[in-house]
Design brief:
Hypothetical Cytosolic Protein, Chain: A, three-stranded antiparallel β-sheet, alpha+beta, 97 residues, globular, 3 helices, two-stranded antiparallel ribbon
Length: 97
């Protein structure tokens, strides 16, 4: 029996290929909303990023999310992504993931 193939995705921050499960999905929904999709099941165009603030900063600086989704992304959205990423990291550290 062959081992199950692990889906790989590229982080928009560090450009490394990593298993999909290790990355956080950022979703651009049809109504223009952009949010973090921790479950990986929300409808919309997805992009992946490492759960590290450095990767989000790098993606923000290079405007990679904006290019991927072909839309302007406000600072508020980036700040919200950063905040929810920190919350997710704290929950993981506390063992509530």
């Amino acid at each position: 029996m062959t081992p199950k193939k692990i889906p790989m995705r590229m982080c928009l921050g560090c450009s490394e290929m990593k298993p999909k499960r290790e990355l956080i999905r950022v979703v651009h929904q049809k109504d223009g909303t952009i949010l973090l999709d921790v479950t990986g099941k929300l409808a919309g165009r997805g992009a992946y990023i490492c759960p590290k603030p450095e990767c989000l900063k790098a993606a923000r600086k290079a405007r990679r999310l904006e290019r991927t989704f072909s839309t302007r992304i406000s600072d508020e959205i980036y700040d919200a992504l950063e905040a929810s990423m920190q919350t997710a990291a704290q929950q993981e550290e506390n063992g509530h993931a």
